[in-house]
Design goal:
The structure is a homodimer of 284-residue chains. The first copy, chain A, is α/β, with parallel strands linked by helices and 284 residues long. The first copy, chain A, has ten helices and seven strands. In chain A, strand 6, helix 5 and strand 7 (175-178) form a beta-alpha-beta unit.
C-alpha cells in the first residue's frame, strides 16, 4: 500500500506549549528517522531555553505567533482554557491551509472554539491518553506517547485531514482512534476524570487519618499517585466537566458506602463477590 | 560494629506457603551471598515442583510438618486465616527453640494465636509492605522485598529474637520496623486496606458505566490495578478488619460526595485547593 497524499508526513510542525505534553511531542518528533522541522513556544523562557538546548527545536521565539512560520500543522499543547483562548488567534495567524490540533483531555470545548472561529474544517483535535503526575518540560519524555491511545475529533468538514494526523501519531508509536467530541468527553469524564478525583478524595482521607505517603505499600502508592497531579491543569478541565462526572462521583460515593456497610455487617461473601467481579473486569 | 549473637544469620529456614510472598522470600534467600538451607511447602504440588525445579529449596515435602526439619526459623507465608490455624500445630511440630514468623498483613490475629498456643515468646510476626495483584509462585520475584518496609511485632517475651529477624529482612534489602500489633493493624487498615477497597469500589463504578480497562489512561490503570487482587486472600483479611476501616470507608464516601457537590456547584477554587493539599501531602 503506497502512501496516500492525505498521509504525507507533515514537514513543518509548530508546537505551542512545551510542558509534559508539548515537550514530549517535540522530543518524539525529533527522534523520528526523518524528523520534521519543529518550531516551539512556551510562555516560560526557561522551558524555551531548555527545549532549544536539547536540540529539539529549530526555533523557539518569545512570541507564539513567530513560531507558526510555514507550519503545516500547529499543535496547541497548553492547558484546556488557554487552548480554547488561543485557538482563534492561532487560526488567524497560522498559514491559511495549516491543520490545527491540540492535546487537551476534553474535546467538546475545543471543537466549539474551532466552530466559533470558523475553522472547523481545519481542526483535528487530539487527546493522547498519556501524561505524568509531574508537570513542565522537565517531565517530558520522547516515549510518552508510545503505545498510548490517542482520541481524535474532527468535524465532517475536516474529515480529509484526519488520516494525516493519524499517520503522525502512528509514526510516534501511538494508536489513534477517531471519536465524536461529545462522546469522547462523556467517556473521559468516567475513564479519566473520575479516577483523578477518586485519588484526591482518597489522599485527603489518608492525610486526615495521619498516614504519611512513606507508610503506603505499592498498592497505596498506585492509588495516590494521581493525587500529585497539577491543580492548574485540572481546574480548567473541571470547569468544563461533563454532568456525567458529577453523577459518577455520586455513584462512587454510594459504592464506597456500600462496601462500608458490607464490612460493618461482616458480609464477607458479598465482599468477595465484589472483588471477584472487579478482578474479572480488570483482566478482561 | 561486630555481629551480635542475636543477629547471627539463620542457617536453616522453613517457608510454609510458596505464593507471591513465600515464593519471593525463598527466591530472595537463595540469592544471598551465603544462602541458608531453605525448605518449603505449598498445598499445591505444582508450586512445590516449580520451586524445587528453580533450585530454591533443599526440600519441598508433601506434608508441611516434614518441611520443618531442623529449622531455626519457620515463616508461615499462607493467607491470614490459614496462618492463624497453622500456627499452633507448627509451634508444636517445629524444633523447640525455633523462631516462628509469618508475613500476613494483619498482626493482632497472629499475635493472639501465638499467645493462645503458648508460644508468644517465640513469635516475631512480620508484614512486608510489598506484594502483587497477581498471586501464586509464578508471580514471585527475588526483589519483591527490596526497599520495602517490613513491620514486625513481638510480645515482650520474644524481644530477644527481634534483632535476628530484623537482620534477616535487612539482608534481603528490606527495612524492618518494630510496631505494636494493634497499632499496626489500625495503621494498615487505613494505609493498605482502605486503598484496596477504594480500588474495588472505583472499578465497580467504571465497569457499571461500561468503561473497559483498555480505555483507561496510565492514571486510571494505576487506580484500578488493585481491583485485580485476590478475593481469597482479602476475604481472610476483611474478616479481621479493624473497626477503623469501616469508619475510614465512610469518610471516603463522604469525601467523594463532597467532591461531587463542589463540582456540581462549579466551586473550582475549593476543588483546586483540595488538589493542592493532596499534592503537598503526596510530595511530603
Amino acid at each position: 500500500m503506497g502512501q496516500t497524499p492525505t498521509e504525507r508526513p507533515f514537514e513543518r510542525i509548530a508546537v505551542l506549549g512545551l510542558g509534559v505534553m508539548g515537550g514530549s511531542l517535540a522530543r518524539a518528533l525529533a527522534a523520528l528517522d526523518r524528523p520534521p522541522r519543529v518550531t516551539g513556544w512556551s510562555p516560560s523562557a526557561t522551558e524555551r531555553g531548555a527545549a532549544l538546548e536539547t536540540g529539539l527545536l529549530a526555533e523557539a521565539p518569545e512570541e507564539w505567533s513567530a513560531a507558526l512560520g510555514e507550519a503545516e500543522l500547529v499543535v496547541i499543547a497548553t492547558p484546556l482554557r488557554a487552548a480554547c483562548d488561543l485557538l482563534p488567534s492561532v487560526a488567524a495567524a497560522a498559514p491559511r491551509d495549516a491543520t490545527l490540533s491540540d492535546v487537551a483531555s476534553l474535546k467538546a470545548p475545543l471543537a466549539r472554539a474551532a466552530a466559533e472561529a470558523g475553522v472547523a474544517d481545519r481542526f483535528v483535535g487530539a487527546h493522547p491518553m498519556a501524561g505524568s503526575a509531574e508537570s513542565g518540560f522537565a517531565a517530558s519524555r520522547a516515549d510518552l506517547y508510545r503505545g498510548a491511545q490517542v482520541w481524535t475529533v474532527a468535524a465532517p468538514a475536516a474529515a480529509a485531514r484526519v488520516a494525516r494526523v493519524h499517520a503522525l501519531w502512528r509514526s510516534l508509536g501511538a494508536v489513534p482512534v477517531a471519536i465524536g467530541a461529545e462522546e469522547h468527553d462523556r467517556l473521559v469524564a468516567v475513564a479519566s476524570h473520575l479516577p483523578q478525583l477518586a485519588a484526591n478524595a482518597l489522599a485527603s482521607v489518608l492525610a486526615a487519618a495521619g498516614v504519611e505517603p512513606g507508610q503506603l505499600g505499592p498498592g497505596g502508592r498506585d492509588m495516590t499517585r494521581l493525587a500529585g497531579s497539577s491543580p492548574e491543569i485540572w481546574r480548567d478541565l473541571l470547569e468544563h466537566a461533563s454532568p456525567e462526572l458529577v453523577r459518577e462521583l455520586r455513584s462512587l460515593s454510594s459504592a464506597t458506602a456500600r462496601v462500608a456497610d458490607l464490612l460493618d455487617a461482616r458480609d464477607l461473601d458479598a465482599l468477595a463477590e465484589l472483588m471477584r467481579s472487579t478482578r474479572a473486569w480488570r483482566r478482561a
